[in-house]
């Protein structure tokens, strides 16, 4: 969400929910970069709500790990580093693997067979931009969550994925890697459609470990001094 769109909210939402949704989206998208001061007065004026809802929204962002208290400054947008990426994947891999296994046991096969076909088409054509690819990957996440129908696992994964959207900016995604990712997602979907929990878990782990290696390498290249 662009800064100028921050005050466009869904009708009927509480003021604190509107402020939280707007600030969260700007942080995740990079509109509010790491270190940005989340001053109540400034944000309340910008978002068109009173200071109390903004204060509540900022408290929720701190609970999410998207904002932190900075000594002498106030609350600022949190940073994300390679260490954060590794910590996130330490938790993400076992949770996503378990979700894929459960989906293979509980899902409607036709739903995942259709998704496998979509990923196969994308992999064959090649991915040209992350904007065209990530909505399909996010649809797979939602479909797995729906199939698993475990609210505790779903909540844990939702929190992780919020931070992983920020991680993507470190990766500087290249079309080649996204095309490989489409093929990996196809394998996951095909295994779930076949009801093969072991294969679904293994395919998911392969995909996530390749993603971690790519993100780590890309982020390190981005911090290297030019020769």
Describe this structure in words.
It is a single chain. Helix content is 73%, strand content 4%. It is mainly alpha-helical and 227 residues long. It has a two-stranded antiparallel ribbon with strand order 1-2. A hairpin with a 3-residue loop joins strand 1 and strand 2. The protein starts with 14 loop residues before the first helix and ends with a helix.
Give a summary of the structure in a few sentences:
The protein is mainly alpha-helical. It has 9 helices and 2 strands.
Helix content percent band: over 70%
Please count the helical segments.
Answer: 9
Instruction: Please tally the β strands and state the result.
Output: 2
Cα gyration radius (Å)? 19 Å
- Which of globular, elongated, flat, extended, rod-shaped describes the shape? globular
Give the termini distance in whole angstroms.
36 Å
Order of helical and strand elements: HHHEEHHHHHH
- How large a portion of the residues is in β-strands, by DSSP E? under 5%
Would you tell me the structural class of the helices and strands? mainly alpha
């Amino acid at each position: 969400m662009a800064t100028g769109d921050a005050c466009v909210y869904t009708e009927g939402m509480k003021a604190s929910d509107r402020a939280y949704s707007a600030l969260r989206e700007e942080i995740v998208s990079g509109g509010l970069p790491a270190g940005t001061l989340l001053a109540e007065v400034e944000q309340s004026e910008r978002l068109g709500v009173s200071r109390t809802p903004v204060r509540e929204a900022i408290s929720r962002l701190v609970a999410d790990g998207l904002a932190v208290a900075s000594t002498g400054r106030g609350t600022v947008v949190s940073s994300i580093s390679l260490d954060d990426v590794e910590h996130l994947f330490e938790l993400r891999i076992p949770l996503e693997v378990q979700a894929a296994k459960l989906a293979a046991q509980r899902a409607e096969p036709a739903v995942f067979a259709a998704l496998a076909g979509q990923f196969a088409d994308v992999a064959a054509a090649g991915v040209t931009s992350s904007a065209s690819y990530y909505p399909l990957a996010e649809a797979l996440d939602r479909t797995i969550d729906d199939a698993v129908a475990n609210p505790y696992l779903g909540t844990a994964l939702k929190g992780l994925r919020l931070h992983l959207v920020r991680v993507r900016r470190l990766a500087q995604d290249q079309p080649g890697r996204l095309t490989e990712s489409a093929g990996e997602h196809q394998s996951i979907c095909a295994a779930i459609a076949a009801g093969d929990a072991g294969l679904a878990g293994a395919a998911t782990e392969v995909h996530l470990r390749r993603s971690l290696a790519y993100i780590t390498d890309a982020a390190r290249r981005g911090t290297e001094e030019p020769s």
